[in-house]
């Protein structure tokens, strides 16, 4: 059975960028529901799927029983995405990465500013609910993508996300209402680049 992860900081610790009430509802209610619904779907799927990792449940979703595929895609994706999201933010975050990740961002996008513009544009232009990602593709290269709903690059075999931003309205509506650009601008001040860097270094070839 899957469980909510521990949150490494208080709900209010990302203020003023992300407000405590949004964090509390987002973590306990939204993420909590993804975990509960994922576990219910797995119970329905039965014993053959008990030992599957979360990554397998996403990447091999089409091999699951038809009647649980959608529930596991949506709720397994929700659990995966939010578990990543909490770790790539921290109090007093933001700034820019250094080391190998900074070098690769420069080599891939031209500059950190150009990368920031690319990821922000991917997040801004995601119509409706979804995510924007910095991910490591199967060749070990960095890339940016946006996916709908609770999908992510793992589903389609594109690669593994190392940084993601939730652009569902539940991630920002209490504080920012319809102003997704203001939320994104604030979110850049929360990024835990040490965490993103260590995820990158574990994946790069
Ligand atoms: Mn969310």
Strand order of the largest sheet: 2-1-3
Percent strand equals 5-15%
Bound molecules: manganese (II) ion
- Main β-sheet: number of strands, strand sense, barrel status? 3 strands, antiparallel
Notes on the protein architecture:
With 205 residues, the chain is mainly alpha-helical. Helix content is 49%, strand content 11%. It is built from 8 helices and 3 strands. It has a 3-stranded antiparallel sheet. Strand 1 (130-137) and strand 2 (142-148) form a beta hairpin. Helix 1 packs antiparallel against helix 3 and helix 4 (99-109) packs across helix 5. The longest helix is centred in the N-terminal third of the chain and has 26 residues, at 20-45. The two termini are 32 Å apart. 35% of the residues are buried. Bound molecules: manganese (II) ion. Residues 26, 30, 82, 166, 168, 170-171 line the site of manganese (II) ion (MN).
What topology emerges from the helices and strands here?
Blueprint: H1 20-45, H2 54-59, H3 66-87, H4 99-109, H5 112-124, E1 130-137, E2 142-148, E3 159-166, H6 173-176, H7 180-187, H8 193-203
Antiparallel strand pairs: 1-2, 1-3
This protein binds manganese (II) ion.
Any descriptors?
mainly alpha; three-stranded antiparallel sheet; binds manganese (II) ion
Structure summarized in a few sentences:
The protein has 205 residues and is mainly alpha-helical.
């Amino acid at each position: 059975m899957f469980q909510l992860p521990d949150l490494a900081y208080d709900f209010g610790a990302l203020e003023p960028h992300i407000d405590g009430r949004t964090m509390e509802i987002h973590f306990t209610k939204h993420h909590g529901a993804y975990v509960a619904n994922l576990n219910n779907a797995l119970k329905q799927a039965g014993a053959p799927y008990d030992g599957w990792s979360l990554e397998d449940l996403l990447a091999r979703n089409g091999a699951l029983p038809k009647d649980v595929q959608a529930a596991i895609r949506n709720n397994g994706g929700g659990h995966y995405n939010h578990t990543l999201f909490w770790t790539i933010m921290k109090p007093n975050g933001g700034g820019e990465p250094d080391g190998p990740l900074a070098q690769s961002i420069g080599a891939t996008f031209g500059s950190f500013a150009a990368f920031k513009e690319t990821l922000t544009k991917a997040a801004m232009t995601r119509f409706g609910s979804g995510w924007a990602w910095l991910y490591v593709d199967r060749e070990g290269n960095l890339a940016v993508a946006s996916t709908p709903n609770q999908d992510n690059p793992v589903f389609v075999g594109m690669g593994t996300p190392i940084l993601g931003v939730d652009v569902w309205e539940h991630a920002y509506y209490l504080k920012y209402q319809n102003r997704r650009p203001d939320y994104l601008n604030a979110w850049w001040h929360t990024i835990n680049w040490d965490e993103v860097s260590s995820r990158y270094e574990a994946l790069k070839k």
